Amino acid sequence: MLGSGSRGNAVLLESAGSRVLVDAGFPVRVLAERLRAISVPPESVEAVVITHEHTDHVRGACAAAKRWGWSIHATTGTVAAFPALAEADVRRFESGATLELSEISLTSIPTPHDAADPVAFVATERATGFRAGIAYDIGHITPALRTALSRLDVLVLEANHDEGMLRAGPYPPSVRERIAGSHGHLSNRAAATLAAERAHAGLTHLVLAHLSDSCNDPALAVRTLRTALGRTRFRGEVVAAPQDGVVGAFGGAGRTELQLSLF
After folding, report:
1. What are the angstrom distances between the C-alpha of 263 and each of 14, 47, 95, 224, 232?
2. Are strands 98-100 and 104-110 parallel, antiparallel or unpaired?
3. Comparing C-alpha atoms, which of 68, 75, 57 is closest to residue 117?
4. Contact 16, 41 (CB under 8 A)
5. What single-letter DSSP state applies at residue 241?
6. Quick check: 238 and 222 in contact, CB under 8 A?
């Protein structure tokens, strides 16, 4: 993870030398710094795929693609909702489609969020079948998401807020209602319920994403998820992705596999 939260999100996928970003919600300077911090030349990235048009997911995409030659991929609704994307050379796809990049297949899944045409992704390394899910900015778990997030090797999952901290937090009632609503963000409790349902012995890492600065605590989020997972066959690691630093890579040991880095 190159970073995850309300001030920016970016996830780096790597497979056999192919590199793909899911979201580029940081300024170009920050993207460059965080990629170089893990010895990844920005020009080596093949593509950036966008989950939705909110600034913390798309801020640097157009400028970075222009500077380093990345292709940009976004849903038709996302392009229409973000003028800079509409003016760029974006490869549009319909929600639910699968994108075939050089080493990685990315299947998009519609998500319930207050955006024009938002999606989550399941990335599959074609050479090995290694699967990683990336699902954040989700108001609630739909049947399609629950099905798509099965039998993963790595899951990046939103754990945005603790419900008690949100109620006692600094936001006005309208914002609290939006966050907790059916098209807002997943709570720790909701994330724990889904993770426990999808857990299996082959899931090596659960990475908690998009944590609120004011209505969550990383230790609390990790503890909530670990408690729920303690009743399952999951024996992997639970990690909270920070907003302002890199964590990862995450992948299986002992073979070539898809890797995720969070900045």
Report:
1. 14, 16, 25, 23, 29
2. antiparallel
3. 75
4. no
5. P
6. yes
- Residues 6 or more apart in contact with residue 258 via CB below 8 angstroms: 13, 14, 15, 104, 123, 124, 125, 128, 130, 131, 132, 153, 154, 251
DSSP characters over 5-42:
STT--BEEEEETTEEEEE---S-HHHHHHHHHHTT--G
Give the C-alpha separation, 108 to 116, whole Å.
15
Percent above pLDDT 70 for the chain: 95
258 falls in which pLDDT band (50, 70, 90)? low
Whole-model pTM: value is 0.94
Cis peptide before 88 (omega within 30 of 0): no
- 8 Å CB contact between 233 and 200: yes
Is the Cβ–Cβ distance between 50 and 74 less than 8 Å? yes
pLDDT at 56 over 80: yes
In this predicted structure, what is the pLDDT of residue 260? 56
Task: Determine contact, residues 164/115, Cβ cutoff 8 Å.
Answer: no
Give residues with Cβ within 8 angstroms of 39, minimum separation 6: none
